[in-house]
Amino acid sequence: MDNRIYGYARVSTREQNEDRQIEALTKFGVPEQNIIIDKASGKDTEREGYQYLKRQILRKGDTLVIKELDRLSRNKSDIKHELEGFKVMGVRVKILDIPTTLTDFPPEQAWVLEMINAILIEVLGAIAENERNKIRARQREGIEAARKKNVRFGRPSKPLPDNWREVLAEVRCGKTKPVDAMRKLGISKSCYYRLYSIK
Asked: Is 187 left (phi over 0), alpha (psi -120 to 50) or beta?
């Protein structure tokens, strides 16, 4: 059977668009139906599409094409581990932003190419990891600054039912049972007791 070519694209959030990566991959010659896409963080490699690609689709002799090295991961050790794993599988990885990975050297010169790629991957892997560390630091700083301004995180609290005070007074004086209060207020048991405990 002919060796096959697959592409992998990743964006960190659902709001981001993967079109730039897909365009680059298809331009290189990857059939669009052979491109696997993940919308997930690059903090590690536990992503549904990527794991399916590795475990169920790719086989010896295939080629995997990615736009940038950090699409695999933003963790340097993960990047090296994944590339070594593909090498053991017999899957060639081509990285469009590392032109030397696209080159076919004669067998007797293959070691030169491997050495060049190893150096580039080491450097770019370190850059990807550093970028992730900077993103995390900026997130922490942003959260800390927001907390100092009393910005609340999480879901916004729901407004109290219009008849809350009236019904609560009835419960406290024994005129209404909690179960009847929940029905009158139109709220769930968990919501009732959460509000009851803080009001």
From this structure: beta
Average pLDDT over residues 162-189: 84
Give yes or no: residues 112 and 169 share one domain. Answer: no
Angle, helix 178-185 to helix 164-172, in steps of 10 degrees: 170
Q: How confident is the model at residue 21 (pLDDT cuts 50, 70, 90)?
A: very high
Please state the separation of Cα 100 from the chain's center in Å. 27
For 56-121, strand residue ranges (E) read 63-66, 92-95
Q: Where are the beta strands (DSSP E) in 12-159?
A: 35-39, 63-66, 92-95
Both structure tokens of 189: 């048991």
Overall domain count for the chain? 2
Q: What does the pLDDT read at residue 113? A: 58
Catalytic residue among 12, 41, 157, 188: 12
The pTM of the whole model exceeds 0.85: no
- 73 catalytic residue (yes or no): no
The answer to whether residue 152 is domain-embedded is: no
